[in-house]
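Exam review. A common question shows you a sequence with its structure tokens and asks you to describe the fold in words. Practice with the pair below. Do the first one on your own.
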Amino acid sequence: MHVHILGICGTFMGGVAALAAAAGHRVTGSDRNVYPPMSTQLKRLGVGVIEGYEAEQLDPAPDCVVIGNALSRGNPAVEAVLERGLPYCSGPEWLARHVLRDRHVIAVSGTHGKTTTASLLAFMLDDAGVDAGFLIGGIPVNFDTSARLGTAPYFVVEADEYDTAFFDKRAKFVHYRPRTLVMNNLEYDHADIYEDLDAIVWQFHQLLRTVPANGRVLVNAGDGNLQTVLRAGCWTPVETFGVACEADWSGRFLDSAERRLAVSGPGGDAHATWSLGGLHNLENALAAAAAAQSAGVPLPRAVDALSRFEGVQRRMQRTATVSDIAIYDDFAHHPTAIRRSLAGLKRRFPNQRIVVALEPRSNTMKLGVHNGTLAPALADADLVFIYRPPEMDSDFEQAIAPLGERLQLHGDYDGLVTAVAAAARAGDQLVFMSNGGFGGVRQKLTAALRAATEP
């Protein structure tokens, strides 16, 4: 079967492409703004990617067109699909129909931590000898791919609450029919499609309705919004996890550098060392260990795998060290994720400057929904360089004014790179935060620092 994917370079759709190729289908696709790591993965898989959405890419007609949720009516390729009557579906629908059917689906949901938790879980299973399938909204370093079919009955999927497609406005995750469901946390996000928090709670309630009574729901005990979801109706046994509250699964750090941890659960107690750090990542690890038990992995074995987990690309990933300046790439784009990431870094490097370069790229950011919480989220940063997209909310400057002299605002990428390069000094922890390509500023800054060290 020839599968053509519109919007193929999104992390989810790139994973669908990988699964389709692994299943023996001929896969092609198209996108705009093609950048790593997904472009690199697709090239390695031998998947042809067309730049743009001209209708001619549908000649000859593929057997199925999978349409990403970033595309809408008016797109030339979408219009051609409809006018010609070509078979089409959404990514989640294709995944459910061709991959998830007859699998024990372990879905990882939540506003934050989905990618890291799903990556941890997939690695715990793999490390224990379980050849589980997975589709993750990022690329775990241990696998170097975002998706795998697997031969075991289990399939790990990152369960996103964003809408499915222009023709299906339900959340993606309602397609997955999980038997084990992780709910990490819940905050207001995606203001471009959800009017308020209640609208997202309703979608999570629909997800809970699909989990069977002989399944398992794992919930962050410290999240009040998730308790609201549970009160709306739950027909499945619930277990809780948490680091600062009473829970079935709990954990704590054993040292100030957050390198050693202890986990307690129904399966006993276990200790490990790891490279991640951060209370938010400890919560992610608890959720993953609890979910791994659904696939028969004992707690000690799951926790021991943490010592061999190498992280996820673009999740506080240390990409280079130049002249004793540590450079990180981080996907954080919600104030809560920004605050947690920086707090973890501050605890690990209490005597070093934290320098942040931020691109507020999400639709929710651009609409100004997070204006009131962005400056406080950057409290642990010593210097903040922000790229201001032209379509940013008009009140943005006033919202970030409390950052004072720590802040520099830039309207172009090259100016930001120049300013960061001039300010950086030995010992700095330099973090680039964006959910997009950020104009290649991290790569340009790394090259500029290296050039400055050459004789």
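Now try the second one, then compare your answer with the model answer below.
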Amino acid sequence: MKIFVIGLGQVGSTVVEALHDEHELTVIDVDQGRLNALSHRFDVATFHGNGASRRALQEAGISDADLLIACTSRDEVNIVAAMFANKLSERTKTIVRTTNVEYLEVWRERQLEVDFIVSSELETANAVSRIIGVPAARQTDVFADGQVQMVEFDIGPDGAGNRTEAVARPVSEAALEVAQRPRGEVVGRPLRDARIPANSKVASIIRGGKMILPRGNESILPGDRIIIIGSPSAAREWSRIIARTERRLDDIVIVGAGNTGVAVARLLLDQGLRVRLIEADGDRAREVAEELPKARVFRSTGLDPDFLERERIGQASAAVFAMPDDEKNLYAALLYKQHGIGFTIGVVHDRVAAELFERAGGDRAVNPRLVTAEEIVRWAHDPRTQQVAMLEGDRYEVLDITVRPESELVGVAFKDLPMTGSLIGAIVRNGTAIFPHGNDALEPGDRAIIFTESSRVGIVEKAL
């Protein structure tokens, strides 16, 4: 596929890194230095110019493109570039990255002539929501309208998940029974003997940076990172086993009521969670209070210890830091930890800062640019691929792909499928998720939820 990428910031760079092996890329940017650095890393064509210029697009050869991805940091540039591409080429599909939910709403009303819009705010809100649902997970994503969940756990030196302090909340007797199980039932024993939660599979074990196929004689060991594919209830059970607690995050404080903070708040309110928003700007605080009447909105920097004590912020079960300053988000997370917050999520825009956030004591970092790139990348896959989740800096992917009737894998029992480094964790048949056993087989039209190395995505798509 011939793909044009406009904008070589973090989103564009991530997209190029994910796609350059399988596709013919042309990258357009106004910064010649960025283009030079890119051309030394990857075998891609570069064009120095303004992607929102009709003439520049023509000179770069947009008429031959199958797909245009406009992902600069300026929404208007992305929209204009896509609209020009649609006028210049009937064959070119267009994807636009936006940081303004309003543009997404206008597009849904068919008022923008682009094929698809990805909202950074909405993708970030979804990522935060998934973390709150399974807080012991390092990363999580949902497939098939929420019927299938992928979760990634770190197994600590003692066999526990990392940073899984218990939140003082009532738990059911059944949950306590699960939480009190010895982790030895899943950690430290061969998988064939482990008490794996029903409707779930260990898709991969990552040890020392290398992937280990989860055969029956393999074991999950302290220090491992594991990828699980299963039902949402199985994901929660894995979380309880690994963390030894049922952590109910139902009272959320959000610091920063910009577009991202409000998008997160709206999604959590829709899920029935209690939400408190803290915003330093008085006008913005009043505007958000009117927009979200179910949330409590405070006018404050959120960094005043007296305010934290007076409003009992430390009694919340989790805090999300969505201020535009990465350093301030990290400082606030550490401050809130001291005041009793058990779980912190930072919306961190720089990739290095995201790693620092977690190493310095924050629990989870969400990078809006990375989750946006992940949603964009799926459009460059086989058209049968409905969703993509990228893991470990795009070393691995989880795909939701429809099986062709002529696939050689149709009718082959799962126990007889070749060991290729890929694993089908679930299938969706007639709209219902199935978690297959050895004697089950793929049928034409099934949607396979499959874990694989990114370098093998093309092979997997062809096989299915």
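Model answer, second protein: Confidence is low (pLDDT under 50) at residues 162-182. The first helix runs from residue 10 to 19. Full marks require stating both points clearly.
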